[in-house]
């Protein structure tokens, strides 16, 4: 497992990270093709780490392959018995609800790992840390998500503050516990690193010349309108073409929609590289959603048809204008725009035919 260099850190006065902007990039979404670069060379994990002594999967921990009962123990540094040094194979064997992964050694997603977007938990196996965020449906011990800075300090001890980032580090037997505070000083993220706190900033900062992008929503999930606002969507049936923007940049988009009189809309989202962004990959998935009064159309990903590696389904929220010929708005997960349109000749019912080219 590769490592980046260390960064000096100490107790009060506050420590400065090398690049506060790097921490801000933790709010970007890895939902599609991502720029690839190289990570730092391998080093050995700290020899005195409790996680190293206990092994990758802690013995005597809860068993079970599903995600119906999740527990993140921040004092022990384990999630359902998995330590920060669990391998990708061990994570997937223990928890069968992952939504994506990046092979170790890639320069995205902190060098690789297994990700659970539906459960807002992330195993960055290449850098040996587990991260849990605000939508995590399980339990956290101590219960810090949504708690104050004072509560975090009371539970974990004297914090080491990474100035200008909102991150607090706490020494732990397995390495280092980390919490992230929002602007109001409340905890929105907790993590367990199998490295000393002195090394954690370098552990998650970009290596020189690289640009890792973590799996995390900077925006939100699509919001389907209430059913009592739905209206006849048959006029939307047809093929819409244009582009959308996400972490990978502008990407070609073809929507094949089939609207019903009830307001329900189903369809297929096919994405592909553009001449201006040839590194984007191609793929497709089914969508579902609703058409509401005022021309509001909201769609969310439903099931993959053709899934390229490391891609996540995203939704669309916007308005249908120009006499039913344009659909523009926002990709909510990416907090970025999209725009599609159709010729009048295409504004007729069209079957949703999966395309894999």
How would the blueprint of this fold be written?
Layout: E1 15-16, H1 20-24, H2 50-54, E2 71-73, E3 78-79, H3 88-94, E4 100-102, E5 113-116, E6 121-124, E7 129-133, E8 139-141, H4 149-156, E9 160-163, E10 167-172, E11 175-181, E12 187-193, H5 200-204, E13 238-246, E14 249-259, E15 264-272, E16 283-292, E17 296-306, E18 316-321, E19 326-331, E20 336-341
Parallel strand pairs: 1-9, 2-8
Antiparallel strand pairs: 2-3, 4-5, 5-6, 6-7, 7-12, 9-10, 10-11, 11-12, 13-14, 13-20, 14-15, 15-16, 16-17, 17-18, 18-19, 19-20
Task: Jot down its keywords.
nine-stranded mixed β-sheet; disordered N terminus; eight-stranded antiparallel β-barrel; elongated; 20 strands; 357 residues
Radius of gyration: 22 Å
The general outline is: elongated
The biggest sheet, with number of strands, parallel, antiparallel or mixed sense and barrel status, is: 9 strands, mixed
Structural class: mainly beta
Number of strands: 20
Distance between the termini: 35 Å
Percent of sequence in beta strands: 25-35%
Give the overall pLDDT as a whole number.
76
For the biggest β-sheet, the strand order reads 1-9-10-11-12-7-6-5-4
* Number of helical segments with 4 or more residues: 5
Model regions low in confidence, pLDDT < 50 over at least 5 residues: 1-64, 206-218, 347-357
Q: Helicity, in percent?
A: under 10%
Element order: H for helix, E for strand: EHHEEHEEEEEHEEEEHEEEEEEEE
């Amino acid at each position: 497992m590769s490592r980046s260099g260390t960064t000096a850190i100490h107790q009060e006065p506050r420590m400065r990270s090398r690049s506060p902007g790097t921490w801000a990039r933790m709010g970007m979404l890895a939902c599609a093709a991502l720029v690839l670069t190289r990570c730092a060379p391998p080093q050995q994990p700290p020899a005195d780490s409790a996680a190293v002594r206990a092994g990758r999967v802690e013995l005597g921990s809860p068993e079970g392959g599903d995600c119906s009962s999740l527990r993140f123990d921040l004092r022990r540094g384990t999630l359902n018995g998995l330590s920060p040094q669990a391998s990708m194979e061990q994570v997937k064997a223990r928890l069968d609800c992952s939504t994506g992964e990046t092979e170790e050694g890639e320069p995205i997603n902190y060098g690789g790992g297994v990700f659970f977007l539906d459960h807002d938990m992330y195993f960055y196996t290449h850098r040996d840390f587990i991260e849990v965020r605000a939508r995590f449906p399980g339990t956290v011990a101590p219960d810090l998500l949504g708690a104050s800075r004072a509560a975090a300090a009371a539970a974990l001890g004297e914090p080491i503050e990474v100035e200008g980032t909102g991150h607090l580090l706490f020494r732990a037997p397995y390495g280092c516990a980390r919490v992230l505070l929002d602007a109001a000083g409340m905890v929105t993220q907790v993590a367990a690193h199998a490295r000393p706190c002195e090394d954690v900033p370098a552990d998650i900062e970009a290596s020189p010349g690289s640009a890792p992008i973590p799996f995390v929503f900077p925006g939100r999930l699509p919001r389907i309108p209430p059913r009592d606002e739905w209206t006849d969507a048959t006029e939307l049936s047809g093929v819409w073409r244009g582009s959308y923007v996400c972490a990978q940049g502008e990407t070609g988009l073809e929507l094949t929609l089939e609207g019903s009189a009830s307001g329900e809309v189903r369809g297929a989202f096919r994405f592909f590289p553009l001449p201006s962004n040839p590194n984007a990959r191609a793929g497709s998935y089914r969508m579902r959603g609703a058409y509401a009064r005022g021309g509001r159309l909201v769609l969310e990903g439903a099931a993959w048809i053709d899934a390229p590696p490391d891609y996540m389904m995203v939704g669309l929220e916007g308005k249908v204008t120009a006499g039913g010929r344009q659909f523009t708005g926002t990709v909510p997960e990416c907090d970025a725009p999209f725009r599609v349109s159709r010729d009048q000749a295409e504004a007729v019912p069209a079957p949703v035919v999966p395309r894999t080219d």
